[in-house]
Design brief:
single chain, 315 residues, Aspartate Aminotransferase, domain 1, 2 domains, two-stranded parallel sheet, 10 helices, globular
C-alpha cells in the first residue's frame, strides 16, 4: 500500500539523556528558532497546548471570539474553547497546509503555522507576532508530537516557558525555582525533542523531494498547491473514490470536514448560516476534499501511478 505520509523510525537510547523530562528541548528551541528566523522559542508537549495558553493569555473571555476557518482539524476549535474564548466561523478553504492568523489583539498576533515550516519564515512577520508550530508525527517536521512557539519578544516567550513548566521560574537547579503563577504541566520531554531534532536535520532534503513531487502533481492536476504538508484534490463521489484507490493499493485521507456542522461547536447558537454567514465553500469542500499520498519517500514510478489512477477514476 502506498502510504499517505511517511514517519521516520528511530531507536532512542535514553541513557544519553541527562534528565528524561528536560534537557534536549533547550537545544531544539535554539535550533528551531534559528531555522525559522526568530530570536526566541519555547517548546511544549503539543501545539494544541500552546494555542490553549495563547487564548487564555490574550483572549480570556467567552465574550471574545476567535474567527476560525470551518475546514479545520477539531483540535483548534477545542483549544479555543478550552482557552475560554468563543468561536466564529469563516468560509476559508485555502489555508489548509499553510500558516494563517489565528487571532489578533492590540498586543499580539497569533499565527497558527502547524502545517508550514519554512527557512527564515519569521522574517515575514512583525515584532508583535507569535507563531505556533506542530511536531505531530505527520506534520512537516514530525516527532512524537510536540509544539513550539517562536517570536522576537523575549518577555512573551518567557511567559509561555514559565506557563508550560507548572508556572515555575527557570533557574537550572529545580530547588531554586519559585512559583510565579499557577501554570500547567505542558513541557516537552527529551524523547520528543530527540526525534524532532533528528527530523529537523533531514528537513531540507525532505523539502527538496516534496517540492519535486508537488510540482509533478500540480502539472498533472492543473493546480497551484504550495503546501509541503498535504496534497488535496476534489472528487465527486468521495467514498467511492477512497475505496477504489484503496483497492488499487493507494492510501488517501480527508483533510478536513467542516467543523461548523458539528453540533458540539454550535453551543445552542446554531450553524454559521444561522448567524448570517455564508459557508458554502466549506460545506462543499467538506464533501469533496481528498488528500493523496504526499511524502518524501515516494518513488517516481509511484507518483506516476498515483497520477494515472486519479485520472482514470476521475473520467
Amino acid at each position: 500500500m502506498i502510504p499517505l505520509f511517511h514517519i521516520n523510525q528511530y531507536i532512542i537510547d535514553t541513557s544519553k539523556f541527562s534528565h528524561m523530562l528536560h534537557g534536549l528541548e533547550q537545544e531544539l528551541e535554539g535550533r528551531f528558532a534559528e531555522y525559522v528566523g526568530a530570536k526566541y522559542a519555547c517548546a511544549a508537549n503539543s501545539a494544541t497546548s500552546l494555542i490553549t495558553l495563547a487564548v487564555r493569555r490574550y483572549m480570556p473571555s467567552s465574550q471574545q471570539k476567535v474567527c476560525l476557518p470551518s475546514i479545520i482539524p477539531s483540535v483548534v476549535p477545542n483549544a479555543v474553547l478550552n482557552g475560554c474564548a468563543g468561536i466564529e466561523w469563516k468560509d476559508d478553504i485555502n489555508w489548509v497546509g499553510s500558516a494563517y492568523p489565528l487571532f489578533e489583539t492590540s498586543r499580539v498576533r497569533i499565527i497558527d503555522s502547524a502545517q508550514q515550516v519554512d527557512h527564515n519564515q519569521y522574517h515575514n512577520y512583525e515584532y508583535k507576532d507569535l507563531a505556533i508550530y506542530s511536531f505531530y508525527p505527520t506534520k512537516p517536521v514530525g516527532g512524537m508530537d510536540g509544539g513550539m512557539i517562536v517570536g522576537n519578544n523575549k518577555e512573551e516567550i518567557d511567559w509561555f516557558r514559565t506557563a508550560v513548566h507548572n508556572g515555575m521560574s527557570q533557574e537550572n537547579e529545580s530547588w531554586k525555582r519559585k512559583l510565579q503563577f499557577p501554570g500547567w504541566k505542558m513541557h516537552m520531554n527529551s524523547s520528543q525533542a530527540y526525534v524532532i531534532l533528528k527530523n529537523l536535520n533531514r528537513y531540507q532534503d525532505k523539502c527538496c523531494r516534496l517540492d519535486k513531487i508537488r510540482d509533478k502533481y500540480n502539472d498533472a492536476f492543473n493546480k497551484l498547491n504550495i503546501s509541503r504538508h498535504l496534497y488535496r484534490i476534489n472528487v465527486n463521489n468521495r467514498d467511492e473514490f477512497i475505496n477504489s484507490m484503496r483497492n488499487l493499493g493507494i492510501s488517501t485521507g480527508i483533510h478536513y470536514r467542516a467543523a461548523h456542522e458539528e453540533n458540539i461547536y454550535n453551543l445552542g447558537e446554531g450553524t454559521g448560516e444561522d448567524w448570517g454567514m455564508s459557508l458554502e465553500q466549506s460545506k462543499r469542500e467538506s464533501k469533496t476534499t481528498v488528500s493523496i499520498p504526499f511524502n518524501e519517500h515516494l518513488k517516481d514510478d509511484e507518483v506516476d501511478y498515483i497520477i494515472k489512477c486519479v485520472g482514470e477514476l476521475q473520467k
